[in-house]
Amino acid sequence: LVDAGHRAVIFDRFRGVQDVVVGEGTHFLIPWVQKPIIFDCRSRPRNIPVITGSKDLQNVNITLRILFRPVTAQLPRIFTSIGEDYDERVLPSITTEILKSVVARFDAGELITQRELVSRQVSEDLTERAATFGLILDDVSLTHLTFGKEFTEAVEMKQVAQQEAERARFIVEKAEQQKKAAVISAEGDSKAAELIANSLATAGDGLIELRKLEAAEDIAYQLSRSRNITYLPSGQSVL
């Protein structure tokens, strides 16, 4: 009996592995002489972690997720040349080979910014390589990509340096603005002094007397609002 999604290869004790692949359903075998080897032909997932190096010699940790299945017509060859555990023997080795080859073409920065291109290149190369072993890859994707501790620390230090540079640039710009404000204020004071000097030259002491009257008026107004000030009539003696 061959279940749904499975295929069987027949091993004959006298003639060896038969070229005919048995499909789903119930089939008759010669007892003791023939033996069925059942293969699951549905797509199955497998995660393969690989540690490799980038173009700029940075350590890269990559995990590749693969959906694979065997080519039904090639099951006898797969069983004869590789064995029932073909996925365990083939996929880790060819995945490591392809990943090392592809990742070595990119530096660390490109692996991040061009991740889609890297994934597509890995998928194309790995699909072609797996086909030589009678395997079909329905999907290949990069699920995990990290770098070594040294590279991560270097990126963090670069970010800190950029932030400090931005802060220093802000301080410089602030100082420039304060300098401009001080110059403008000084120019205003200079202009005001010039106007006052011109007024004194034109009106003489009249401007000074006017300012005295304005100051006296302001002082009298402030004193009139205070409770501690008492006004007494002039020319009288008050005990």
From TrEMBL:
It is found in: Cell membrane; Mitochondrion inner membrane. GO terms for cellular component: mitochondrial inner membrane; plasma membrane. In the plasma membrane, cooperates with CD86 to mediate CD86-signaling in B lymphocytes that regulates the level of IgG1 produced through the activation of distal signaling intermediates. Upon CD40 engagement, required to activate NF-kappa-B signaling pathway via phospholipase C and protein kinase C activation. Belongs to the prohibitin family. Keywords: Cell membrane, Coiled coil, DNA synthesis, Membrane, Mitochondrion, Mitochondrion inner membrane. The mitochondrial prohibitin complex consists of two subunits (PHB1 and PHB2), assembled into a membrane-associated ring-shaped supercomplex of approximately 1 mDa. Residues 2-159 form the Band domain. GO terms for biological process: DNA biosynthetic process; mitochondrion organization. This is Prohibitin.
